[in-house]
Specification:
243 residues, alpha+beta, N-terminal domain of MutM-like DNA repair proteins, Helicase, Ruva Protein, domain 3, 21% strand, DNA damage, multifunctional enzyme, DNA repair, glycosidase
Length: 243
Amino acid sequence: MPEGPSIVILKEEVQQFAGKKVISVSGSANIDISRLKDKTILAFKTWGKHFLICFDSFTVKIHLLMFGTYRINERKVSKPRLSLVFENGELNFYTCSVKILEGDINSHYDWSVDVMNENWNPKKAHLRLEKIPEKMICDVILDQDIFSGVGNIIKNEVLYRCYVHPESIVGKIPFHITSQLIAECSIYSFEFLYWKKKFELKQHWEAYTKNVCLRCNLPFQKKQTGERKRRSFFCPNCQQLYK
């Protein structure tokens, strides 16, 4: 599943179509795709893992899910879920969720929970964590209503950086450590973006998919953790378990 930084890259790659009119539209998406024809794209936006194509009175929301892909100015053999053709090129999405959001896009999203948005508000994240003290931190970091854009790679790397065991209980983690975790969710997301653009993201992974702790030279533990049962890679020696 693409994480927030990958969707930001998509937004940057399609700027050539901003302000352009859709001259034809096709695809298997379960929406009224005819609404898009002859409409002009006002802007492209992202909210976490959501890619947003904004028109005058509605927005098309694309979620790439686990295996979604896209092609710019080219096509795959398989039929696209949504294909937009412009005078200067085309944009095709595959194996994804496509929905229409009516009205002003700002009425649908809280931009302050997106860790890569200019309106990101870490204080709001603090307040929301205080309301769920019994949850495991591995679940909370993946909560898109608190850390929109954070996926499993970022979760593992942030917890490792902050020396926190993924099964730690939120209410037991010291305040200063919680503050560090919140900050790192945004910091690491921008580093992820930088490394991915340079095609060297995996070179910088210190926890995700790793077998040995770089700090302790001891075996990592691999485990499906929390209610979400997502893969966690952690060092039981240096990542503190707060319970």
